[in-house]
Design goal:
Layout: E1 3-4, E2 9-14, E3 20-26, H1 40-46, E4 63-66, E5 68-69, E6 72-73, E7 78-83, H2 105-111, H3 129-143, E8 147-155, H4 161-171, E9 177-184, H5 198-206, E10 212-217, H6 228-231, E11 250-251, E12 254-255, E13 260-266, E14 276-280, E15 285-289, H7 304-320
Antiparallel strand pairs: 1-2, 2-3, 3-7, 4-7, 5-6, 8-9, 9-13, 10-13, 11-12, 14-15
């Protein structure tokens, strides 16, 4: 469905080329300071414009239509909308008959019997992460003074991000990347041992970000090559500080007071300029084609702030519980 959370609940709506997209946040405590300018830093980080990102340019100005009065949250649901103004829907007419490889076009057509809005990916588009970033800005206020910081640490197999982007532009093909995220200053005790573990809550939302293909906490998959004595984090004081952080700040699904750390894998953008082949429903044959429209060569460039946002949403929900 399109709703997530137990107390701090978010509902996402809209389509990439529809009139608008937006988010409703329920369960936010009353009296929280909210100003339109509070959203600007994170929304700017998500915007396109840098080398390797889409030329689609939207203002992305948040319009708060409920839940905030005199710059304070009222305790009622907060709804924030963003208008879509810079659309070129004609670029997507061909995908009704020729689903793009790597995209959700084929499964959406089957699942919704052809009634889905196919333009720009419709409701499945990365455009909707704008709403997640807005909700994340509110969640970060609830978590303050804790800090969440995510950064792109690898792109196209390179730690030199600029070099990787220049190569992708030269090759005219898309690349993926790895985003590392840290949450610092979290209290001990967030999360539950089983179904609402910190890992499961964060992972659920991380995988709601289009193009995410993997996540690892702490030492992650490298833990499989370690012994128990190597992997265990020795506790060095009464506050629970540890000598190492292979657990990534989580034990038994619960925050332990150390830095929460995880990494996510972002796949290459499916819409690559390279010629590809796919099934054509009209001719009933495999045909070569090129994807039209405006797309990121490296969507991973714009993912870090979205990772921060969904991490904040999950942690805010756990904190309020």
């Amino acid at each position: 469905m399109n709703t997530f959370g137990n107390i701090f609940r978010i509902s996402i709506f809209g389509e990439s080329h529809g009139k608008l997209i937006g988010i409703t946040v329920d369960g936010c405590p009353a009296g929280l300071d909210i100003h339109k300018e509070d959203f600007s830093p994170d929304l700017e980080r998500r915007k396109a414009g840098a080398s390797g990102t889409t030329p689609r340019n939207e203002e992305d100005a948040p319009n708060i239509i409920s839940g905030v009065f005199n710059d304070k949250t009222t305790g009622a649901p907060i709804t924030i909308i963003f208008e879509n103004n810079n659309t070129k829907s004609g670029d997507y007419e061909t995908i009704k008959n020729t689903p793009r490889p790597g995209h959700a076009d084929f499964v959406l057509q089957k699942k919704f019997h052809g009634y889905n809005d196919h333009r720009g990916g419709g409701h499945s588009s990365g455009r909707l992460t704008l709403g997640l970033v807005a909700a994340g800005a509110i969640a970060k206020k609830i978590l303050s003074p804790s800090i969440i910081d995510a950064r792109l640490v690898e792109a196209g197999g390179e730690t030199d991000i600029d070099k990787a982007i220049q190569k992708a532009m030269k090759d005219q093909d898309s690349i993926g990347g790895i985003v590392a995220c840290r949450a610092i200053g979290l209290p001990i005790g967030l999360g539950e041992p089983f179904f609402n573990s910190v890992e499961s809550m964060i992972s659920h939302l991380i995988f709601s970000i289009p193009a995410i293909k993997g996540i690892e906490f702490g030492s992650g998959f490298a833990a499989t090559r370690m012994t128990g004595s190597e992997h265990n984090d020795s506790i060095i004081d009464a506050d629970g500080a540890t000598k190492t952080n292979n657990a990534g700040g989580i034990n038994g699904g619960i925050t332990n007071g150390n830095e929460l750390f995880f990494r996510v894998a972002v796949k290459p953008t499916s819409s690559t300029p390279k010629e590809q082949s796919s099934w054509n429903n009209t001719t009933e044959s495999v045909e070569t084609f090129r994807v039209k429209g405006r797309h990121d060569l490296c969507i991973a460039l714009r993912v870090p702030v979205v990772v921060e946002a969904v991490t904040a949403i999950a942690l805010a929900d756990l904190l309020l519980q």
